[in-house]
Amino acid sequence: MGIKIGNAPFRDRVQEGIENDFMRGAVSSAQGRFRSGRLKAAEELGDWEDWRTLGEEIRSHTLQNLDYYLEQLSEQVSKRGGKVFFAQTAEEANEYIRNVVQKKEAKKIVKSKSMVTEEIGLNETLEKAGAEVVETDLGEWILQMDEDPPSHIVTPALHKNKEQIRETFASKKGYKNSDLPEELATFAREQLRKEFLSADVGITGCNFAVAESGAVTFVTNEGNARLVTALPETQISVMGMERLVPTWEELDVMVSLLTRAAVGQKLTSYVTSITGTKQEDEVDGPEDYHLVIVDNGRSKILGTEFQSALHCIRCAACINVCPVYRHVGGHSYGSVYPGPIGAVLTPLLDGYDDHKDLPYASTLCAACTEACPVKIPLHEHLVRHREIIVEKEKKAPRSERMMMDGFAKWGSHPAAYKLSTKMARKALKPWTKEEVIQSGPGPLKGWTDVRDFPAPSEQTFRSWFKTRQKGGRS
Amino acid sequence: MKVSLFITCLCDVMASDVGKDTVEILERFGCVVDFPETQTCCGQPAYNSGYVTKAKESMKQMMKAFKHSEYVVSPSGSCVAMLHEYAHLFKDDPEWKEVAQELANKSYELTQFLVDVLGVEDVGATFSGKITYHRSCHMTRLLGVTEAPYKLLKNVKGLEIVDLPLCEDCCGFGGTFAVKQPSISEQMVKEKTEHIAETGADYVVGGDMGCLMNIGGRLSRDDRQVTALHITKILNSH
């Protein structure tokens, strides 16, 4: 599918999200859990702001020296018997992986959750090549059965409830039990166990790769990445080119931030690392290991004012605090990356043409910036995007441009400003009833469609101040 | 102490009482308040919509208007946060760089000025009623003013303050967002006003007119028995 999900216009996607009561209930209760969990975990850790600063410094240092660390990582993986492939585009990554799979004559592939493989549309490529791809993260497995894209980067099936999941299991897998989460999970475990045991190739994403040792690390709660990496003899890890840390020491910091910011946990149930192929003195490990490092537009972001967007560790803290995401849900963004980080990242990776509405899907309340564990100034990036859309891409509507021309004249000519403020009450009089405007003209319509607009004051402040008796109210 | 009032375009036109109350509060604490007549708008509507070049025209006008002021005080956290941003926006402009930094340094939101500069926590106000407080996003997150309004409100005689659930969530105003994305804005303000109504408060109080017009407009549309009030109204009641 790739980074873009769906072709409906932004407005329609949003409307669909708003009308999906069930999804909104699920999102707001999940946001509640994630928010309080994150705050509690941050408090327990203590010095959260210092940790954020450290996280930002590590990410910033790594990005500034990305070429060095990527080379080091590549050398280490190669030294341990792994093959490293740098894919400039999604197509190159998909083609490389397809070749590996075809060479192995692999029939079944098990995958652990990976946003970058969603971004490049890997499953589709492999399925077209005749392989069966099985997602083993519970949420991803459910979505795969429903052919539904993820709506959240950590909990991809956040928009579904247990009744819907029961139905999916029943219609797609012959499930006969209740919608009790324990029974659903037991069924999923039984089903997935068979898949793990019969898979020819395992594909993972990568939370962080450690440059000094070549270890590719996965953070999960379900342990599925451990099984994906432990059973099939052929392993492929796919990573965004920015997802690495210099040493184990920085990995410690980043994992501490990631699990707390994402789900409010000190540590997830599993943190798994895979370092190249099985060595002579080792009892197990993959026979064949491939690390695919994906650029797909990332290097274009390096060195620009948006570089810090690459600091992202995909924790979804920004999504969990976002009041816009809360009401419209993940699919409204039309990208595999939803929420504030999605609105920043998607136009950078996939251009403005299909995603020019995303930077406006924010009130700039800065809750995202405040929550980000690596201090990405998300709301500022959204303003920069708007600036580019208006001033460079010239994609703003004509009516808005004219209004802003007027604004600039108004704001820079005090006499005109004074006159217009004085006239405001009179100008709005035809629409005013009992000091309230319920159906306003022109640009006011968007406002009055959903709330009342007050009538302007009888006298502007400035005219009151001018004629005011010293110290008096009138 | 000489203080220049930055009224903000919204208060100037839509809520002149906020300005009157601000002047009276400042005068009560010995400030000599002047009103530079050539002030216009901080530029935020254009800036936040991506029209940075156009916003700067308004910003330059503001810098000229307040060039000689000692302190600039305003009844809006959001507009003052915008003034602070000038320092960053003009940092590479040799003509405006310094004056932008000076304006940022001397600009304060009203409650911030009262508490941090004048050292006042009790303004001697009396207001009977039950209120809940809407902490606006730009005042708290961009300007960093989180405690000052609460400190002042706690000392108002007769006032009962109740907590607002999910007070950290934006009300859905967002400047031009309210008219550009009315359907999303509607959901946000709907949830906000539902939480406000749940508190059983008679008034929802805030320090930013934009949020208050949004919240108040929805309260009025839904005929809710809660009134949106700017904090200056409470602080200037006796």
TrEMBL record, chain A:
It holds the Pfam family Fer4_8. Gene3D superfamilies: Alpha-helical ferredoxin, NagB/RpiA/CoA transferase-like. Keywords: 4Fe-4S, Electron transport, Iron, Iron-sulfur, Metal-binding, Repeat, Transport. InterPro entries: 4Fe4S_Fe-S-bd, FTHF_cligase-like_sf, Helical_ferredxn, LUD_dom, LutB, LutB/LldF, LutB_C, NagB/RpiA_transferase-like. [4Fe-4S] cluster 2 binds at C322, C365, C368. Residues 309-376 form the 4Fe-4S ferredoxin-type domain. Residues 70-294 form the LUD domain. Is involved in L-lactate degradation and allows cells to grow with lactate as the sole carbon source. Has probably a role as an electron transporter during oxidation of L-lactate. Belongs to the LutB/YkgF family. This is Lactate utilization protein B.
Automatic annotation (TrEMBL), chain B:
It comes from Pontibacillus salipaludis. It comes from the Bacteria. InterPro entries: Cys_rich_dom, LutA. Coiled coil: none annotated. Pfam families: CCG (PF02754). Belongs to the LutA/YkgE family. This is Lactate utilization protein A. Is involved in L-lactate degradation and allows cells to grow with lactate as the sole carbon source. Residues 3-83, 131-215 form the Cysteine-rich domain.
